[in-house]
Design brief:
This protein is α+β, with helices and mostly antiparallel strands and 586 residues long. The protein has two domains: 22-237, Fumarase/aspartase (N-terminal domain) (Fumarase C, Chain B, domain 1); 244-554, Fumarase C, Chain A, domain 2, CATH 1.20.200. The protein has 22 helices and eleven strands. A hairpin with a 4-residue loop joins strand 2 and strand 3. The radius of gyration is 28 Å and the shape is elongated.
């Protein structure tokens, strides 16, 4: 088999046992280097094949970075074009001219390096809290990936310096606010570059927060000395929007999968029917997400395959159909899944796109000014993501109401014994309602706004930075609402004992009970909500249920359609109608 362009051989001064290849599901090679203390994995970046999963892993510190040989060659050829422009004193935007409104101001050759340092310093004007280390790593890694494409004109020497900074986990102080999303994410990326040149603040696990110069020195690194065009190469692009968007997409995918499991557990507690998940219903409206969600519900609730004593207790009841919040989960959860898939496609394209200006085309030996820095694509996508994922919380909050309301659930009010003395889930439901209401405001699209900047030179912007940040806030609220529903559903199970639910849902119940005990009487509830939230964020709920879902898929288990008063056949209705005398009024 030919080696993948992402084959990464590890180099280390530490003694190592050996290296071997690991074939992943995305058909790329990674090589680990084992030391006595830890595993060190490298991802070889080429600017073309980074995935959202990869970037999240880089943010968590799971991998270090190398460049592919092909990427190194492209970077070198791109730099040759810049060197030629400087040597020939050609007037080119951002290389031998000022920026924005000063695009027509030609800069003397003797001050071209000073120009780049001034750019980074003046544009480092963000405000707000600094990005957490994981998000800072993602931002830095993504900028490296984009520079590896070879269209920005950065020198290979400088790019390798930046990679060393990433691999040492030296992370600049980057305020979260200040980008309008065109011309790229200038303020946050300037703060990123500021740390690289040894100015401002930096953080590392070894040093904590300190002056950037001293953090670099503590790791045996030197500040980057910017050459012509390199300041602009480091700060011009949509990487703030896209890296935060990458986290949003991955967290949205995780909570969407687990929302199906939580809702299935609620349906069991409320003694709902599985008839609404019949394959024939969804085959005639074949949206991919809808079909998948219905399948997950069947795989979790099929009481013939996974015997459920709760389901058997009401198999022959007088209910015809459930409320929308239970019956329409495939349609509501399904479109969320399809929304996430759509947004993920845009974000993945953006991860591997050149978003600098001007672009350096080595094959043509020239630079071309354009607008790839404009963040409208990820901004619109992330606004859409927030709107889509919010619906998981909106429908979850209504299910929590059904669980807590004794007239709807046939369970004790607010899921607690001795109601009145105890309040149970009364205010936990209010918390869910508050989060859903807040999300409704956050779902207003930021990308519908635009303000002219830079003396009307940059007269239309995306506001993508806010789109990304509020998408993450919406998703966190969704996680918290579903955590409350998960706790409420498990508490509802307590009142149905000794009856048991299906095997996969019992596993989910056991998982929750491993961190949160049942409510016998009122107690401090916030820590329990946080514990359930952690289970969802860490995807523990998915991990315990997924094997049963996949087993059901692989084994092609026949769908069970039990005959009951809630599943009338046409033949039965016809027989019944023939018994009505012709003379009788209808």
């Amino acid at each position: 088999m030919a080696a993948s362009p992402r084959l990464a051989m590890c180099a280390s001064s530490c003694a190592a046992a050996r290296a071997w290849a690991c074939w992943t599901t995305r058909t790329c090679w990674r090589w680990p280097w084992r030391t006595t203390s830890s595993w060190k994995w490298y991802i070889a970046l080429d600017g073309d094949s980074l995935t959202t999963e990869d970037l999240v892993g880089l943010g968590k510190g799971h991998y270090k970075i190398k460049l592919t040989p092909t990427a190194e060659k492209k970077v070198q050829k791109s730099r040759e074009v810049i060197d030629s422009i400087v040597k020939e004193k050609t007037v080119v935007y951002g290389i031998t001219t000022g920026f924005g409104k000063f695009a027509r101001t030609v800069i003397p050759t003797s001050k071209l390096e000073e120009l780049q340092f001034n750019l980074v310093r003046s544009h480092s004007s963000g405000v707000g809290k600094p990005l957490i280390p994981e998000r800072c790593r993602m931002l830095l890694a993504l900028r490296i990936n984009v520079l590896a494409k070879g269209y920005s004109g950065i020198s290979l020497e400088t790019l390798k310096q930046v990679i060393k900074v990433f691999n040492a986990s030296c992370l600049p102080y980057i305020p979260e606010k200040g980008t309008v999303g065109a011309s790229g994410d200038l303020a946050p990326l300037s703060h990123l570059a500021l740390g690289l040149i040894g100015e401002g603040k930096m953080w590392s696990p070894k040093s904590g927060w300190a002056d950037a110069k001293y953090v670099l020195e503590a790791h045996g690194l030197k500040p980057v000395v910017l050459k012509p065009k390199e300041g602009l190469a480091l700060i011009n692009g949509t990487q703030m929007i896209t890296s935060l968007g990458c986290e949003a997409v991955e967290r949205a995918s995780a909570i969407a999968r687990q929302a199906d499991i939580v809702a299935a557990l609620t349906l069991e507690v409320l003694k709902g029917t599985t008839k609404a998940f019949d394959t024939d219903i969804h085959a005639v409206r074949p949206h991919r997400g809808q079909i998948e969600v219905a399948f997950r519900f069947r795989s979790l609730l099929d009481s013939d395959h996974h015997p459920s004593e709760i389901a058997e207790s009401h198999r022959f009841c007088d209910r015809v159909q459930d409320a929308y919040t239970l019956r329409c989960c495939p349609q509501v959860h399904g479109v969320v899944n399809d929304t996430i898939a759509f947004v993920k496609n845009i974000i993945t394209t953006e991860l591997n796109s050149a978003t600098d200006n001007p672009m350096v085309f080595a094959s043509r030996g020239e630079t071309v000014s354009g607008g790839n820095f404009h963040g409208e694509y990820p901004a619109k996508a992330l606004d859409y993501l927030a709107i889509g994922v919010h619906e998981l919380a909106a429908i979850s909050e209504r299910r929590i109401e059904r669980l807590c309301n004794p007239s709807l659930s046939e369970l004790p009010a607010f899921l607690v014994a001795e109601g009145g003395l105890n309040s149970g889930f009364m205010i936990a439901h209010c918390t869910a309602a508050a989060l859903v209401s807040e999300n409704k405001a956050l779902c207003h699209p930021s990308s519908v706004d635009s303000l002219s900047t830079s003396a009307a030179t940059e007269d239309h912007v995306s506001m993508g930075g806010w789109a990304a940040r509020k998408a993450l806030r919406v998703i966190e609220h969704v996680e918290q609402v579903l955590a409350i529903e998960l706790l409420a559903a498990c508490q509802g199970i307590e009142f149905l004992r000794p009856l048991k639910t299906t095997t996969p849902l019992e596993k989910v119940y056991d998982l929750v009970r491993s961190v949160v005990r049942p409510w016998i009487k009122d107690r401090f509830m916030a820590p329990d909500i946080e514990a359930a939230h952690r289970l969802l964020v860490e995807q523990k709920v998915w991990e315990v249920a997924a094997p049963y879902i996949e087993k059901y898929r692989i084994e092609h288990i026949p769908e069970s359609r039990p005959v009951s008063p809630t599943a009338f056949s046409l033949e039965f209705l016809q027989r019944k109608s023939t018994k009505i005398p012709e003379s009788e009024d209808l």
